């Protein structure tokens, strides 16, 4: 087994490298998002630069979660190349330490980082994102830039069947809607009628649509001052439908998923996010193994840039594959566990195969 002193030394080197790369990326993302938020707030009165800076700081942690695998890859490659350049790994190999032995400390470190990011950092970033979304809605009217269809959609079910609501405005966490269109279906999922209303207010057990116009196939449209649309949704469940999976803490995702499904809403995003967080430690391990595959050679004759480029390209391919499989899972083509775990498992297996070929022939 690798000695305690060498193991602690390698663990400290990798921890410093990964945290340094993560901090650099954090600052870059903060500056870019700060400039973008300043641009968006340029025409809004009573918005200060300090307020924009604080809002940006609340937004960035949620974004940086997505670049943690890249920070791990970059930090691992920096650490491996530094150890190889100083011939420290060469000396360790000459002393009888195999590649699998000196890979143990960095693998354990990234496992701890992954567990910490899931159990502590993710809940904190989700809490900050919820605060940022609330401030952003009050400042800009809605979160994110207004591009394309910015309408709000709610799919619900009741004792009468299912219905889909589309609203142009919302307030009071979705309990009051403006410019509403409701598509009503019966228990056999056959379309019954379309209701257009100026406003909709959530009451216990039903939506109250005001100044409504009802369009039923085969009948003349007629207007009514008040139209009741049954629903199983509560005020909390409606507010959840406007909460993105990124804004839900890790510990609350199973309960969010269960309550969303009970209300007849699509909980795929919450299930997929939960499984992706569970798979994150293994994904970070895959990034370390990829870095080792491209950084452990003794490059006396050069070729450092080629190795670094190969490692970055491999990490990018794994990231793209992760996003692609995640989109397939979100669309329902793959189950949430398969979509979340397969990139990490495949990446780890392929990297291990490359290391076995390099070290053991």
Can you put this structure into words, describing what you see?
It contains ten helices and six strands; from the N terminus they run αααααββββββααααα. With 361 residues, the protein is an alpha+beta fold. The protein has helices at residues 4-40, 49-64, 68-85, 88-94, 99-140, 235-241, 253-262, 268-295, 304-330, 336-360, and strands spanning 152-158, 161-171, 176-185, 191-203, 206-215, 222-230. A hairpin with a 5-residue loop joins β3 (176-185) and β4 (191-203). It has a six-stranded antiparallel beta sheet with strand order 1-2-3-4-5-6, with helices on one face. The relative contact order is 0.10. The protein has two domains: 4-142 and 267-360, no CATH class; 152-242, no CATH class. The chain is elongated, with a radius of gyration of 26 Å. 60% of the residues lie in helices and 17% in strands. The longest helix has 42 residues, at 99-140.
Mean pLDDT: 84
Give, in order, the helices and strands: HHHHHEEEEEEHHHHH
Radius of gyration: 26 Å
Parts with pLDDT < 50 across at least 5 consecutive residues: 144-150
Number of beta strands: 6
Residues in β-strands, percent:
15-25%
Can you summarize the main beta sheet? Answer: 6 strands, antiparallel
Largest beta sheet: strand ordering: 1-2-3-4-5-6
> What is the number of helices?
10
What's a quick, concise take on this entry?
The protein is α+β, with helices and mostly antiparallel strands.
Name the descriptors.
2 domains, 17% strand, 6 strands, alpha+beta, 361 residues
Secondary-structure map:
Elements: H1 4-40, H2 49-64, H3 68-85, H4 88-94, H5 99-140, E1 152-158, E2 161-171, E3 176-185, E4 191-203, E5 206-215, E6 222-230, H6 235-241, H7 253-262, H8 268-295, H9 304-330, H10 336-360
Antiparallel strand pairs: 1-2, 2-3, 3-4, 4-5, 5-6
């Amino acid at each position: 087994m690798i000695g305690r002193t060498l193991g602690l030394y390698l663990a400290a080197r990798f921890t410093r490298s990964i945290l340094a790369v993560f901090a650099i990326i954090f600052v870059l993302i903060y500056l870019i998002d700060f400039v973008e938020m300043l641009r968006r707030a340029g025409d809004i009165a009573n918005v200060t630069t300090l307020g924009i800076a604080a809002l940006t700081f609340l937004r960035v942690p949620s974004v940086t979660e997505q670049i943690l695998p890249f920070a791990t890859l970059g930090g691992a490659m920096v650490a491996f190349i530094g150890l190889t350049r100083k011939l420290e790994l060469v000396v360790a190999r000459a002393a009888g330490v195999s590649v699998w032995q000196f890979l143990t400390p960095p693998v354990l470190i990234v496992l701890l980082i992954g567990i910490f990011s899931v159990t502590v950092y993710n809940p904190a970033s989700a809490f900050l994102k919820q605060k940022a979304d609330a401030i952003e809605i009050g400042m800009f009217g809605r979160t994110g830039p207004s591009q394309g269809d910015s309408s709000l959609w709610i799919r619900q079910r009741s004792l009468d069947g299912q219905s889909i609501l589309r609203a142009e405005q919302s307030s009071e966490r979705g309990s009051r809607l403006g410019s509403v269109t409701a598509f009503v279906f019966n228990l056999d999922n056959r379309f019954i009628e379309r209701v257009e209303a100026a406003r909709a207010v959530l009451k216990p057990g039903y939506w109250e649509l005001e100044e409504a116009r009802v369009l039923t196939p085969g009948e003349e449209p007629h207007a009514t001052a008040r139209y009741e649309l049954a629903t199983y949704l509560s005020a909390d469940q409606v507010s959840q439908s406007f909460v993105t999976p990124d804004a839900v803490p890790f510990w609350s995702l199973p309960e969010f998923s269960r309550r969303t499904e009970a209300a007849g809403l699509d909980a795929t995003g919450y299930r997929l996010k939960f499984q992706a967080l569970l798979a994150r430690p293994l994904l970070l391990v895959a990034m370390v193994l990829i870095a080792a595959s491209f950084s452990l050679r003794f490059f006396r004759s050069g070729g450092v840039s080629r190795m670094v480029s190969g490692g970055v390209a491999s990490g990018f391919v794994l990231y793209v594959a992760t996003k692609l499989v995640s989109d397939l899972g979100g669309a329902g083509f793959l189950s949430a566990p398969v979509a979340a775990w397969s990139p990490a498992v495949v990446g780890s297996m392929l990297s291990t195969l490359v290391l076995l070929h390099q070290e053991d022939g």
